[in-house]
Amino acid sequence: MKAKIIKIGNSKGIRLPKSIIVDYKMDDEVAIELREDSIVITAIKKDPRAGWEEMIKKANNKLTPLEKDWLDFEDPIPEDWTW
């Protein structure tokens, strides 16, 4: 596959076809690794749980006292339980 180097503001760059971006699950950022005779572009795998802790803290502030009581509920797993 070939790509033309194009002017982007004061810099230069290449455009990646949409099919490559979709197939390799590239979102907003990529990792660029410079090797001896090549440049490797890799998709950055995001943590699927990123931001959950902050969302839970926000949600906890909206809980009623009864709902908060359920957060402390523990259901012990029987010792003979197997996965």
**Cα-based radius of gyration, to the nearest Å:** 24 Å
Proportion of residues in extended strands: 15-25%
Examine the secondary-structure arrangement and name the CATH architecture of the domain at 6-43.
Ribbon
Number of H/I helices: 3
- What level of helicity do the residues show? 25-40%
Low-confidence stretches: none
In CATH, the topology of the domain at 6-43 is named Pemi-like Protein 1, Chain: D
The first-level CATH class name of the domain at 6-43: Mainly Beta
Q: What gross morphology would you assign?
A: elongated
Q: Tell me the series of helices and strands, N- to C-terminal.
A: EEHEEHH
Could you characterize the architecture of this molecule?
- By secondary structure, this protein is of the alpha+beta class.
- It has a domain at 6-43: Pemi-like Protein 1, Chain: D (Ribbon), CATH 2.10.260.
- The chain contains three helices and four strands; from the N terminus they run E-E-H-E-E-H-H.
- Strands 1-2 form a two-stranded antiparallel ribbon. Strands 3-4 form a two-stranded antiparallel sheet.
- The longest helix is centred in the C-terminal third of the chain and has 9 residues, at 52-60.
- The chain is elongated, with a radius of gyration of 24 Å.
- The mean pLDDT is 87.
